[in-house]
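#structure-requests
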Amino acid sequence: MIDMIEKEESIISEEEAAQYDRQIRLWGLDAQKRLRGSRVLLVGLRGLGAEIAKNLILAGVKALTLLDHEQVTEESRRAQFLIPVDADGQNQAQASLERAQFLNPMVEVKADTDQVESKSDDFFLQFDAVCLTGCSRDLMVRVDQLCASKNIKFFCGDVCGYHGYMFSNLGQEHHYVEEKAKVVKQSEETNDGPEMKKPKVDPNETTMVKKTASFCSFKEALEIDWTSEEAKVRLKRTPPDYFLLQVLLKFRTDIGRNPDPSSFSEDSHLLLQIRDDVLEAMGVNPELLPDNFVSYCFSEMAPVCAVVGGVLGQEIVKALSQRDAPHRNYFFFDGLKGSGVVDFIGAK
């Protein structure tokens, strides 16, 4: 829905120019205009959703819809800074609305308390980007396919304990611009010797280069044939968190939720069983995920939400503003290692 042509409604006022002065200096007025003309749907207002909402609101999108049908609990607000401490029992999206809007009055923020599964296809078509957090595999596949057919940017992600991930599908042709250092032509008078054959780069001068990236679907990225020779080579550089994601998605499909600390013993046993079944069905060794993985994938941890939410928010901003190279397609974060891993699984 967003293209390189500036939208009429994305004209920035003097007040907005002052508000977003730092961002305009960072990525340019045209990028900020495209961002200012964008409407985003964010599903899931737990810890990760709160981080993403904060980043999008501060960046200055036109409108953000917070969709969540679940009620606030002590567990759900541990990593959620938008919900007041006395909001237990209230709807999570509604309870997050006041503090979210306070972050930036120039952004239209509204809450939707419906269940995302009940939404028709037409509902999603009003947005330029859709981001799902804490959702089932089937729902993410459905919405991703819908968004791809209508040129809507699709994102999803989740956090379980020390681990988190994000996925993006920006379509078959995502156009963006990237700032590059300008290559300075050599003078003919000084063009002698081997050193003069190399082009010189002037870091003080830059030029904007238009580029295009192609993305695969969420379904394709999940259903890789790991028995092929090409995949076996790729397996060596595939982070274990990719396979952990498969296990957690199957857990959510079977149980309808993420692993819960209140049922640690039962859920741990089930996770190990799912690990064996899922990885064997994929044709990979279950030992890729050692048994102790179950100790580190319960509940949401605020620092992990901050990292994954920061990356996810940044990727949405880059996609909508069409500025800088996007991730293709995954970002995995392992809090035990203290580092994120970008992988190109399934990318074309």
